[in-house]
């Protein structure tokens, strides 16, 4: 085999003896422009394996449709995108939250806070504010003012977006930890 053939996955003829095995791992990625559609696909089709025996007879195996197990994603996804580098005790700071509607319909939503989950950082603003309708798959950026009341490592959590159609609540995917410094 030359160097070009060594770098290829399927190069030239390969001989396997009786009871030999060969395993391959594939990573399948969608074509450019089809990323969002690919997230809703439940199968990737069939796998067909062709081979030829020593006596030159051809063989073929077809699989049934190969299912994809996608992680369950919420209808509405909330993430914190921007936090300041320095957070000073008892000084208001702002964070940017990204809200993403993963449905195919516009959704009317409300922003509220679960104060019982907020220990060292409080929200500086009103709870229960209607944000209007969120477009499908178009991120909406909102700014939230926060007020740290304890120094040290604190978590930003307790931010809730409510779908006003079915009254379902969604919270931050993963709380953000930050260090609150004394002035």
TrEMBL record:
<dbReference type="InterPro" id="IPR010378">
    <property type="entry name" value="TRAPPC13"/>
</dbReference>
<feature type="domain" description="Trafficking protein particle complex subunit 13 C-terminal">
    <location>
        <begin position="84"/>
        <end position="172"/>
    </location>
</feature>
<dbReference type="InterPro" id="IPR055428">
    <property type="entry name" value="TRAPPC13_C"/>
</dbReference>
<dbReference type="Pfam" id="PF23643">
    <property type="entry name" value="TRAPPC13_C"/>
</dbReference>
<protein>
    <recommendedName>
        <fullName>Trafficking protein particle complex subunit 13 C-terminal domain-containing protein</fullName>
    </recommendedName>
</protein>
<dbReference type="GO" id="GO:1990072">
    <property type="term" value="C:TRAPPIII protein complex"/>
</dbReference>
């Amino acid at each position: 085999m030359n160097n070009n053939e060594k770098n290829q996955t399927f190069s030239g003829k390969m001989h396997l003896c009786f009871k030999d095995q060969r395993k391959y791992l594939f990573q399948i990625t969608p074509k450019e422009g089809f990323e969002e559609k690919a997230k809703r696909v439940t199968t990737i089709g069939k796998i067909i394996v062709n081979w030829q025996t020593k006596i030159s007879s051809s063989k073929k195996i077809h699989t049934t449709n190969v299912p994809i197990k996608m992680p369950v994603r919420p209808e509405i996804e909330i993430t914190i995108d921007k936090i300041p580098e320095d957070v000073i005790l008892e000084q208001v700071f702002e964070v940017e939250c990204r809200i993403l509607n993963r449905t195919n319909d516009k959704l009317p939503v409300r922003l509220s806070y679960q104060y019982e989950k907020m220990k060292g950082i409080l929200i500086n603003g009103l709870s229960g504010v209607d944000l209007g309708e969120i477009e499908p798959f178009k991120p909406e950026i909102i700014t939230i003012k926060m007020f740290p009341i304890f120094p040290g490592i604190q978590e930003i959590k307790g931010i809730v977006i409510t779908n006003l159609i079915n009254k379902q609540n969604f919270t931050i995917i993963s709380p953000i930890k930050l260090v609150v410094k004394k002035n």
